[in-house]
Amino acid sequence: MALFQLTDWMQRMGVNVMSQNRMGRRATPVLSLLAATALLALGATQLRAEDAASGSSDSVAQGKALYAEGCMTGCHAARFGGDATKIFTRTDRKKNDIKAMAAMVSFCANQLNTGWFPEDEAMVTEYLNTEFYHLTK
Question: Superkingdom, according to UniProt (predicted)?
Answer without folding.
Answer: Bacteria
